[in-house]
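Example with several molecule types.
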Amino acid sequence: MDFRSPAEATYWLVEGRALFLFLYFLGTACFAWIVAKRLAPLWRAQPDPRFDRPLARLMNVARYWFGQWRHPRYPVSGALHILLFTGFLILALRAFALLIYGIDAKFIMPGGPMYGVVRDYAATVVFFVVVIAAIRRLVFPPARFGKDRPADAVFLLALIGVLMAADAFFEGARAAAQNEPVTFLSLSWMAKSTLLHVSASWHRNFYLGAYLVHGLTFFFLLCYRPFGIQFHVETSLFGIYFAKLDREQLKPVRWGVADAHIDQVKSFGVKTLEDFTWKHLLDFYSCADCGRCSDQCPSNAVGRPLSPRQFTIKSRDYCFQHYPITGQTGNGKPLIGAIYSEDEIWSCTTCGACEAECPLLVEYIDKIVDLRRGMVDGGRVPQAMQKPLKALESRGNPFGKMQKKRADWAQGTAPVLNGNGTRTGTLYFVDSITSYDERIQSIGRATAKVLARAGVEFGILGPAERDSGHDVRRFGEEMLFLALRDYNTEAIRASGVNRIVTADPHAYNTLKHDYRDVPPVEHISQAIARDVRAGKLRLQPLADSTATYTYHDPCYLGRHNQVFDDPREVLDAIPGLKRVEMSRCRDRSFCCGGGGLALFYEPKEEERMGVKRVRMAADAGASVIVTACPFCMVNIEDAIKVAGMEGKMSAIDLAELVEKQTKGD
Amino acid sequence: MDILVCARRVPDTSENEIALNSAGDDIEREDLVYSVNEPDNYAVEEALQIVQRIGGEVTVVTVGGEDDEEILRREMAMGVQHGVLISDETFMDADGKGIARILEAFVKKGHYDLILTGVQAEDGAAQVGGMLAAMLDYPFASLVNSIEVLDGGKLRIGREIEGGSREINEIDLPCVLSIQTGINEPRYVGMRGIRQVASVPIPTLGATQLAVVPEAPKVKRIDYFVPPAGKGAAMLSGNREEMAAKLVEMLKAKGGLN
Amino acid sequence: MPRIFVYVPPSGGVVDDTPAELLAAARQIAGPEACVTAVVTGWGAELDAACEQLCAYFGEIWKIAQETLVYPNAELVRQALAAVLPRGCILLVPHNHFGVDLSPGLSIKMDAAFVSDVLEIEGLEGDWLKLVRQEFGGQVSTHVRCDVSAGAVLNVRPGAFQPLDAPPVSGQVHDVAVGPLAARRRYLSTIAAEAGDVDITKYKILVSIGRGIQDPDNIAIAQELAEVLGGAVSCSRPVVDARWLDKSRQVGSSGKTVKPKVYLACGISGSFQHLSGIKGNPFLVAINKNPKAPIFRVADAGIVDDLLEFLPELTNQVREERGVPAK
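Resulting structure tokens for the full complex:
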């Protein structure tokens, strides 16, 4: 019996080598054609500078691609995928070697016996992983998988299984016929054991047949992957390499156009598919439909029309439809109305939970902001938000209150800087909600008192301050944001301070990342933590230590800026304070409902985000929620009322708590 | 269809901040924020939607001074094709009828199928539209909250009447309509839109071009005042619990609790 | 002294204070003895009934009957009045959806002065009539003087002039003919406001919310109070414009007219359009964060507080008072 290379065998009158050469050529050509077609929209899309800092990008690849860093956040799926991925890496060599064997009879399988054993076990693991995954997908799907599309997923899993089995039977057939050893309990071993019971004449058929099946399956998979979620096998490496390095920098209106020249841009934002950047389109291809983003998305959780995963899959399908493998490429039709609804895009609070979760580093916030820019450019802003935007333009705050009353909240606790400072001192940037909302004004006063007690020389801009513009930008009104930013930047620089502190994480985020040429900024929790450590602030024991406290991480302090520990340190430094953690905390914190313009938007939802959050606190056994953001405070206190939990739950701001627990003068 | 919208720049009153100035002869205008009169903005949006459907152009006109140009630009940023400022020293003290005369002269210089105004402005007079129609001898309808263009130079309009009902009328063109808020959802116009029309020239017409000499106003405002508190409410005092308790007592006395 | 006329729009058979208010306003100009003529238009039995009613108030009634006037079309009425009214007279019209439609144009056709939404008439001094109006949504009042030498049309705010305690008169009805009226605006139909789930006109206690409710989710706070008081939630126009409540809940000139015993105006500034929907002089309580809100001038009791905080407190206390357990 002849068990040399299949290259020398004859398949239905055709020599093996010729057959496989033809197959490989056809398969590769098909694949190249398909990939070229898939790349077509990327050439037409907007620029996106992702070719800098190769070392940093390679570090990302090492961490997120090789290291599968995000996967263990969902332990079961994570484990399955890590095994699958590792298997793939190990088997990659094998797959190519096997293909070459079909056209070069003298090719020796590389790696030697050591690799052979590793490879055999890898293939076995992969096989069983796909079986488990398929069963899970069909019989016990987790909620986040959604109700549709199991057929495609199972089909692909089945193909991988076939690939493994084909290879196993290839080895097993030869081993059975020639009585060779195979790795114990591996897939090949099982194949060999099965084939021992088959008549010897069939061994060669299995040998050659399995080889052909392997080749066909390999190339079928190769060409089929770009039609669905499995394309991530190819695109993930590029997607992660080109992932955004400066996560907190919002995409400008157009890369390559400076803010000062923004008037030159004819059309703002994303209106048609080609208005996205090439990296955004690549993101659409890279989505593996795992659903982790939507699982974490607070908008999705409360029944708003937004689901990040559906957003990406819809966009991908639109790409496929309008840039098909064969046929006409689509013209630029507006996306809003075609695949996205206005409400869907306005529903996002930009909390970032989706981006923190995605194993493929798919970006969302830039896309949502760009779509909003497109809507604003076209005048399609919900009536409920037009009033605050107008008020921001004419009065510098979304509430429509008078500019000259902006510092009235202080009541003597915070002096107004007079604009001839000498590069010393601290600016307390208050921002609009703390200046004008009666309830939140007490957070302002508490912050001012705490700063004074810590011996900080500080002042506020007073009526010269305008809204920081953080959410104006994220709701797509770029020009208004730039106007606010320019105004504030001038006022800040004129004040002569060398440091900014704020109790508003939205102001903190924008001053840190969106503003240029302003002194360094920190959040009050960071300042307090440092002062507590240095002994400048002494925290008194709680008068009533029966309450249980929990800390709610504000999205723009925690997840977006990685400040998790300072506020906790402060709380733990208060003697007698009992603190518990909610199960969703730190970078898995659940958004309170959003700030800035999100407060004015009237979404269609089943429940408020704040209500869900307050129930999470109750589930954790807490009776007091501590937060460090004025918008969180508004949403949580509202939610306590709406949920009917008054008397059982209360909320306090970190600065208010510290003010209570430090001695005044 | 060529539509003319008569608009006005008014102070923003939603924050209840209109107060008398220290001299007591006018309202305090120093910190006022001005914008286009809200019903006028709805009228412009309606006009834009009509010409988007059936073709034509929209012109917005205002009677005032340099400061009033900004509302013309805002409406042009919304999509209005032409903005016109009517300004003259002799127009400065015009009352409602005087403004209607000025607009009459302007309308007669052009050709408009439909003239829209907002239902009322900050003085609550609600008069310019009706007066203009009578001067031009055009039919008029006020409080319009729906417009449908019919064939043959007619419109089917809805008017908002007492009780929230809607009176449906048919009206011949050319006509004058005063538009009520809520007729549509005006599009947003931001700073970018306004920047884009910042250098579009806005023609200014004066008394000589319009050949109108304003009559002496028959209606004169003498002063502004805030009526003495007098018969106002009995204000309850105390903290929240105390005020609520007092109110409960009052409700009991008035038969509200049985 | 110019002749004083009042125009009483057809009320669809509803008996209200309009004739009495117009008469009271006319008396402010003309004095208690002068003859005030009422003018009415219409057709058929309804017009006859209206004339009969008016006979109790006015010494002279001019009845303009024509089939085209069966529905009060301001375009036609304007032509009729311009034809029959003598030059130089003063005409008083109610300031409502009809008066706004009729009067500005009529003043031009009569070549007379026009003043809108008059609150008070201080008196006539020679050719000058001294009046009081409001501007800026009622935030300030103004003294106005109007030259009536060539006549005037005055739109009078409904409810601003209290009906006089005068003995009824027996008026004479005169038929006045007008020629054919050109109808370039034609009445087609009236679409009645949709009946909502709750008929606020049937409730004795109304908890009424305005812009101050801030968020549709907060309406529940008002609803709880309404329930515990056995009343209903009603609202002002901005709440309906924002689509937070159905139009059937709106109190005001373009909404419903209510006659409750108790009316709690929460977060409502007190524009006249809203107040004109409240009749029967109920116990009016105003709850508003802004101590300068115009509503405090007309309320019986006033509370300066955030309604979102005050209403739950009030709800609790009412519950205690009634012995109803909290939910």
